[in-house]
User: What shape does this take?
Amino acid sequence: MMTAVEVITAKRDGKTLSSAQINWVIDAYTRDAVADEQMSALAMAVLLNGMTGTETADWTRAMIASGQCLDLSGIDRPTVDKHSTGGVGDKITLPLVPLVAACGAAVPQLSGRGLGHTGGTLDKLESIPGWRARLTPEEIRRQLVSVGAVICAPTDGLVPADRKLYALRDVTGTVESVPLIASSIMSKKIAEGASALVLDVKFGSGAFMTDLGRATELARMMIDIGRANGLATRALLTDMSVPLGAAVGNALEVAESRAVLRGEGPPDVVALTVALAETMLASVGIDDVRPAEVLASGAAYETWCAMISAQGGRPEDRLPEAKYIWSLEASQDGHLFELDARAVGLAAWRLGAGRARKEHPVDPAAGVLCLAKPGDRVVAGQPLLEFHTNDQTLIASAVEAVMDKVTVSPIPPAPTPLIRERLS
Amino acid sequence: MMTAVEVITAKRDGKTLSSAQINWVIDAYTRDAVADEQMSALAMAVLLNGMTGTETADWTRAMIASGQCLDLSGIDRPTVDKHSTGGVGDKITLPLVPLVAACGAAVPQLSGRGLGHTGGTLDKLESIPGWRARLTPEEIRRQLVSVGAVICAPTDGLVPADRKLYALRDVTGTVESVPLIASSIMSKKIAEGASALVLDVKFGSGAFMTDLGRATELARMMIDIGRANGLATRALLTDMSVPLGAAVGNALEVAESRAVLRGEGPPDVVALTVALAETMLASVGIDDVRPAEVLASGAAYETWCAMISAQGGRPEDRLPEAKYIWSLEASQDGHLFELDARAVGLAAWRLGAGRARKEHPVDPAAGVLCLAKPGDRVVAGQPLLEFHTNDQTLIASAVEAVMDKVTVSPIPPAPTPLIRERLS
Assistant: This one.
């Protein structure tokens, strides 16, 4: 007979938890036999004292065992998924999933909603009229067969322990633990049942992990968990000190994603989409298709339309537009020097694009358009940012968010590579 | 506007909490505006990252402010209290409170119940027929005027934050934090309103803090909190590697306490009672009375009878006796070498003297009598311990608890002083 206090005090005192202890505590927490106040104390002890690789792999397996995995049998294409740790303007999932499907793989992408200054993929897609996020496991399977691409909410039975624990960590100051983040992400990805996974692990001001070292540690830990569970996992470490593309905000990002799928769109979004697609395809052995060509051919856009339509969306309908658009102008001639991702994300959030609490709605039309990127030559009076909102009173605090964080300088900044490293 | 997550993450990241943060979080927790799972995460962060002296004093004051203090106005004797951190066979409060009252001070002793291997003063007194633990603040005041001695349960309004937090810490592995222990004890003692306090801080196997260094740290912290709040506080550091006296168990300890009050009783219990009484009296300026003489005169026993009667108890009635008494005998001639306090406490607990959960009842008659003390000469077959219980099936596991922890050796152990240090 184990008790919660025994498991908590073991971790508190710096001991390594056994598989049996981890299995017991996750299962008991899922069944409400371990209380929230016990799990939050354990989570804080894990955050401060860490977990070994073995403990983290055990923790992940115990979370997976709390529910049912998706059944992807009967799908004859190779299955592959991606996960991004989240950033400002990171809409890459939107063009990437149909692109990879158009290249011949099947992509079961179970996504989340945004909280804080980074957006959520489901929130973005919900700005498309008619589109619905919730599918049954059977609907997911059928759509993977027919279209090859699904972006939807996690199904109810998928890793219930993570859903509970994630909500708890959010209110108890226990989010920022590398092993807990890694096991939360990987438990869902493993339960999805794809045969390969590519991680986009971000660092920089707009990322969850601002520090490259910590981001690398997280990437390594997730690759190890994938390997321990038979899921081939690779990772790209990518820069998130500047927003991705121009659009930050739900409908604005959908519009930008459509442009990418039509062979247009900002070069950084296109480059990262293509790089991730190539890595995903390589990891399931598809090496005879060039994603950049598939984008240019229009095939990826066709798959996008089929994917959106399959979930009730009307892909060609007008997207919501904001009532008020206000421009922030350059105060002097020079180069755009800094365009801080976190500040821009916060501004978009304050304009209504994000939520403070998970039960709040988001404003699909709200957000920020970045009209210049670092290094661009600008002249005094030229608009640098466009603030989109349906509530004019929110503009002042959005401007405040970017003060001293969007700067013009006589000299350009040193260029930084978008993709810093590839791990596998 | 503060949030619980801000306060938790500040402590998690090793920062010092401000008075405003501490006041807010304790008040909000008392009002249920901060949830149990948030407070337990904070408690774990406090346990692992510590609190400064100032933070601990602030924490204590915020706890006191959560309720009402006792009003001891109108009592013309000097008021003084004691607190023991708890040990096996530690019945000292029982003879000490009436003794100090018989010497001319008034003692408002708000006590607790036992949990784990150490007994609780209220559980012990409840083995006296008719005695009741719950008094109103007005009853306490009146009894302090008439008798000068009260031992009772904390009143409802006294430090409600501590009651909530103590129950939470008990189930979340966050008991063993020196600042949280110190603030829990001192908040109640300061709220009691006495003008001086003497602490009996125990170390050794049967104590809560087994290590002398940690016990000293706790004593120092409590003295500092007392000083910061105008409560003159002194401490004795006393050895708890061997049970105090012979009796361990509720009615058994009451009987031994009565013997002490009649001028009899084991020498260690008498010595510690007298030493604590002298320190308490000195701390309120009473220096013309000798507690040892007051014990011998029978005056302390009279005060005991008056104190018990005032709370409905019948002090001369027979105490509950156990149906079964089983003796553990010495296996060889020699000296009793080890009599491990924790093992004996655990044996008494297993015989029914303690509770596993706070809602459980205790068996007043159950317990252990130690018939020899370390250093005593014993012969093979001589009874060393008497196990008292109403449930014969419990004896085997009680014997198991003391295996290899009560030993006979050809040579006697080195004698150790009961009182190791005095701090003020």
Q: What stands out?
A: Chain B is about 45% helix and 15% strand. The mean pLDDT of chain B is 94. The two ends of chain B are 40 Å apart (CA to CA). The first strand of chain B starts at residue 80 and ends at 84.
